[in-house]
Amino acid sequence: MTKVTSIVVGAGLAGLSAAYSLARDSIDVLVVERGDYPGAKNITGGRMYFLPIRSLFPELWDEAPWERHIVREVLTGVSKCSSLSIEFSNQKYNNKPYHSFTILGSRFNKWFAQKVAEKGARVINKYKVDDLILDNGKVKGIVVGGAQIEADVVIAADGTMSQIAEKAGLRGKREPQDFALGVKEVIALSPQTIEGRFRLKADEGIAQLFVGSLTKGMLGAGFLYTNRDCISLGLVLGIKDLTDCHLNVMPYELLEEFKLRPEIVPLINGGESVEYSAHVLSESGIKGMPKLFGDGILVAGDAAGMAMNMGLTVRGMEFAIASGALAAEAVRMAKKQNDFSAGALSKYQDLLKESFVWKDLNTFRHAPDVLANPRLFGEYPQLACTMMEKLMTVGEEPKKKLSTTISKELRSRLALSLLRDSFRFWRM
Amino acid sequence: MPGVLVFSEKDEFALDLLPKSAALAKQLEMELNVAILGPAAKSRATQYFARGASKAYISENELFTEFDAKVQSQALFEIAEVSQAEIMLLVSTKRGKEIASSLAQMLGAGCITNALDIKVEDSKLVASRYGLGGTTIVSEYIETPKKVIAVIPQTFETIEVKSSDGQVIDVDLKLDKPEVKVIERKERKRESVDIEKTDVLICVGLGLKQKEDLGLIQELANAVGGEIGCSRDLASSLGWLSEDRIVGMSGKRCKPKVVFSIGISGQSQHVAGIVGAKTIAAINNDKNAPIFRVADYGILADLYEAVPLLTKRLHNMLKS
Amino acid sequence: MRIVVCAKQVVDLAQIRMNRETREPILSGIPLIIGDIEKNVLEEATRIKEQHKAEVIALSIGWPQPDGTILECLGRGADRAVMLADPIFETLSSTGVATVLAKAIEKIGDYALILLGEGSTDNNSGQVGPMVAQILGLPLVSYARQLEIVEDKVRIVKGLEDCFETAEASLPVVVTVSAEINEPRIPTILDVMEASSKPQESWSLGDIEISREELEQHHSVKVLSNQYPEQTRKNILFQEELGKSVDSLLQNLVKEGVLER
Ligand SMILES: Cc1cc2nc3c(=O)[nH]c(=O)nc-3n(C[C@H](O)[C@H](O)[C@H](O)COP(=O)(O)OP(=O)(O)OC[C@H]3O[C@@H](n4cnc5c(N)ncnc54)[C@H](O)[C@@H]3O)c2cc1C
Ligand SMILES: Cc1cc2nc3c(=O)[nH]c(=O)nc-3n(C[C@H](O)[C@H](O)[C@H](O)COP(=O)(O)OP(=O)(O)OC[C@H]3O[C@@H](n4cnc5c(N)ncnc54)[C@H](O)[C@@H]3O)c2cc1C
Ligand SMILES: Nc1ncnc2c1ncn2[C@@H]1O[C@H](COP(=O)(O)O)[C@@H](O)[C@H]1O
């Protein structure tokens, strides 16, 4: 039977990062990816914070296919027919090292895989790992389309729905509230058009988030990121709300409605929709993590539930990259002792706990509960818009004093919950 | 005088090509000649003259009794020489492409096959063909002194025959015996369908899960009075339908009023066969399916739900 | 018996998009993959190998380097592979491609069977096979949908528009195959892993003793334009509740007068 030292299941950021680290340390590694090419199935919104991962592979990042570095953040609350945007820009965002970038999974992962191959790892696409070879609960390798490949250690980096972690018995049943659904469209526009419409210079980008009536009161948000020659536009929706919801709407219908909003139309006008995708994300944070290691197996990235809805944005990419690298580090140590038992591989968890991954996930551990609050996605954006409308509009009637306008809105039944929610939000 | 030489292994195809060739030859100030090979070549020449040929280079050599591409291209190579042909216009059947390619190689000529059209532009002979598997139309011309172009059969309007005279030149060819022996020939069973003529075409593809489900498609076809066509693999690999029903680059090019494209991804080779339709309606359950980008109307749905419903509504509509 | 398989790399047609302003295809960044018909060609070679003692050599010329295609050939049963990469191949016409292939085949030597596709996935010109046969002075049997080796002969069923012909020729011979000839099997992951350790050679123009000047002669077909046909389709996607979608579709078709009541 064919045997290798290590197998990485999935060529997402977690898997590629693990494979890159292993190959760099001359450890024999085979990456198996079911997509047509690395990146084909890596749906992501597309913003990566650079600083946490910068030191991991310093030699790599200079040539990475970044789309644009973010120079402006926009938060937009929308109600049925109005919207309120807060724009934030920071001179520092234009200084190197850049604070965050947009990326496209398809381009970025393809490039990353190439680097991994150059380091000597084998990346095989278009094959789905169906099962693990198990021997008394110990992982001994993988089964792919009937063929078996043995390995000392398998790194499960197969994304949110990780079947591999499940097959290894590392994870129990999960609930709908643990998941969100992301739907996304990529709309092609020339770089000049993008720069003109968003007031950007070459290489500069914006990140815009939308909350409010676009999700019809469901947990979720919309996002818009500018890439080099296209725009990523999408929605992230809580699956529980989506399935409980009496509205019976399909996510892509919401996305279509989103695209028709007057705030969006002029931004994407004339662009060609080049890709539509939907993907499940884990939302449960640290509480929903599986066991991260077993005999002959480690779990990294989304497969280990290391993605999180932090406030309004989803973060997972840096966690994927960092956890992949740490899993590789644990394998390297295990190989030195030639011991791939759970005990030896548990080093991975120790390393993680010392890293920003664990710390961030821990800090935001209450986020899912705080965010499971429908007011955040319905009433508050509505409230903000109504207040602005009252402030800004001059009608036939004489205009009321500002203080009365505001206090009247705030005195409404929402006020108390607003206070309570703000406090919880603050603590998160 | 330099000439245009027209040839097909089948008279009917060569005759279809002649009037257009005559027009081109005139524009290029060349003589229009033809090659006719095989039994009764001499008597067949009159039809060629009727369509504008000046000279017919013929040979009734017995080696032509059986078709052999190599023997024929050898013959054409010699005829090209004696007739001072600069441009060889052939017909892009499978046999024709084989002849065209071998001939071009012998002549050191540039070669274009599957031409959709030819015209003279800036005194160059410009041909168009499908590129990138039917995705695009490539327009190109040949730069070598001798040129070989094979045009898809029945591309040009057939023009009325008017009789006129021409010169028959019997050429003595030095030919090698064929290296390939044909030991059996079986006519293809033709199905009497004419999907190129129907007003309503129902095209079905690999979205269909099993042969039995063709019943669903037939019911729809009955409801609208349409004919069933299909994507290549449904006929060629799976054999669920006759190959006469293949629509696309290697099948039929159809021009119905409306095509219902069902469970077809819409790859370019297939789409080349329906671009002539007035309206294209597609049913597919994959929002990214390229067929939606070439269709007028699309329904994003499972065909197993959509087709029966469509059939039912059509029945109601046509009844009322 | 030595079988040479000619395999062409093509851009992944499913991923090409149109530049809206020029209607030209956007080809940059589109992955290069092995052509569809090549899979049938390799399957046939492998099938022959399983019945007779044979060595299968894959040959591909292209630019950029057709290494993905070569790897795919090796995963699909070729024993070794030869590739030639040179920017000049990008614009070479069929006579040029055939010339290079023929030279490489001669260098490989000792061939009994040369297999090509009846038409490549992108160009579908069907020229290269007959041209290679012409250059090498070998018999050609094209459009094969069945192939059998009987002693020192091939027996082939050719699929033509109006008939099926059973033809016979002595080895060595050039054969072009149709997609109907077989159903290519999907290589296992072990085949793919093994592929990367099979021998591959990269030859230059010098290796096959062909000069750049000679090849320049084969830029005989000049492209004036390559554009998407003018597209006036409406691209309306109904994605309401199914009943409503069907009704909307029918209403529109009736309104356009393409469907009679
Ligand atoms: C709509 C959306 C927006 C997001 N926005 C952001 C954002 O802006 N910022 C951010 O940081 N994060 C964001 N995320 C989260 C982020 O994309 C993920 O956390 C991150 O990409 C996870 O990487 P991964 O390698 O763990 O998993 P994935 O990228 O999912 O990779 C898993 C890989 O494994 C492969 N695979 C699965 N099963 C098998 C198998 N059995 N055999 C072989 N291969 C297999 C898959 O094909 C896939 O390539 C977003 C996610 C979504 C869906
Ligand atoms: C040189 C060459 C020439 C060719 N010539 C032709 C030609 O003339 N004609 C031709 O057709 N092809 C031709 N082909 C083949 C062509 O490239 C494609 O392989 C073929 O058209 C694909 O057929 P398809 O769309 O039926 O199958 P697929 O590409 O497999 O598509 C099936 C579609 O059905 C959809 N589907 C699946 N299940 C359902 C469901 N339940 N409900 C609704 N939709 C569903 C899928 O989403 C998918 O889009 C040629 C190829 C080559 C290389
Ligand atoms: N660049 C190439 N390298 C190897 N084989 C080729 C190449 N181009 C064409 N062929 C072969 O010729 C066949 C027909 O190609 P074409 O004549 O372009 O339709 C292909 O299916 C291949 O087998």
CATH architecture of the largest domain in chain A: 3-Layer(bba) Sandwich
Share of residues in helices of chain C: 25-40%
CATH superfamily placement of the largest domain in chain A: FAD/NAD(P)-binding domain
Q: How would a textbook summarize the main sheet of chain C?
A: 9 strands, mixed
CATH class of the largest domain in chain C: Alpha Beta
Low-confidence stretches of chain C: none
Radius of gyration of chain A: 23 Å
User: Which strand-content bin applies to the residues of chain C?
Assistant: 25-35%
Domain tally of chain A: 3
Overall structural class of chain C, as computed from helix and strand content, comes to alpha/beta
CATH class of the largest domain in chain A: Alpha Beta
Trace the largest sheet of chain C across and list its strands. 11-10-9-12-8-1-6-7-13
**Total helical elements of chain C:** 7
Cα Rg of chain C: 22 Å
Give every kind of bound small molecule, once each: flavin-adenine dinucleotide, adenosine monophosphate
Query: Could you tell me the number of beta strands of chain A?
Result: 19
Q: Which whole number gives the mean pLDDT of chain C?
A: 95
Number of domains of chain C: 2
Helix/strand-derived category of chain A reads alpha/beta
CA(first)-CA(last) distance of chain A: 51 Å
Largest interface: B-C, 84 and 81 residues
Features:
A: alpha/beta; 3 domains; eight-stranded mixed β-sheet; 16 helices; 19 strands; globular; C: alpha/beta; Rossmann fold; 2 domains; nine-stranded mixed β-sheet; two-stranded antiparallel sheet; binds flavin-adenine dinucleotide; binds adenosine monophosphate
Write the layout of secondary structure elements.
The complex is a heterotrimer of chains A (428), B (320) and C (261).
Chain A lengths: L1 E8 L3 H12 L4 E4 L14 E3 L19 E10 L4 E7 L10 E3 L2 H14 L3 E3 L4 E7 L2 E7 L2 E10 L6 H5 L11 E10 L2 H7 L6 E9 L7 E7 L3 E9 H6 L6 H9 L5 H4 L3 E11 L10 E2 L2 E3 L8 E3 L2 E3 L1 H21 L4 H4 L1 H8 L1 H8 L3 H5 L2 H4 L1 H14 L9 H10 L2 H14 L1
Parallel strand pairs in A: 1-2, 1-10, 2-7, 4-12, 10-17
Antiparallel strand pairs in A: 3-6, 4-5, 8-9, 9-10, 11-14, 11-15, 12-13, 13-14, 16-17, 18-19
Chain B lengths: L2 E5 L3 H18 L2 E7 L3 H10 L4 E5 L9 H14 L2 E7 L2 H14 L2 E6 L1 E5 L2 E8 L4 E7 L4 E5 L15 E4 L10 E7 L12 E5 L9 H11 L2 E4 L1 H5 L21 E5 L5 H4 L7 E6 L6 H4 L2 E4 L2 H17 L1
Parallel strand pairs in B: 1-2, 1-4, 2-3, 3-10, 4-9, 5-9, 12-13, 12-14, 14-15, 15-16
Antiparallel strand pairs in B: 6-7, 7-8
Chain C lengths: L1 E5 L2 E3 L5 E2 L6 E2 L5 E3 L1 H16 L3 E8 L4 H9 L4 E6 L8 H15 L4 E5 L10 H9 L3 E11 L2 E7 L3 E8 L2 E5 L11 H7 L4 E4 L8 H5 L4 E7 L8 E3 L3 H15 L5
Parallel strand pairs in C: 1-6, 1-8, 6-7, 7-13, 8-12, 9-12
Antiparallel strand pairs in C: 2-5, 3-4, 9-10, 10-11
Helix pairs in contact in C: 2-5, 3-4
The complex binds flavin-adenine dinucleotide (2 copies) and adenosine monophosphate.
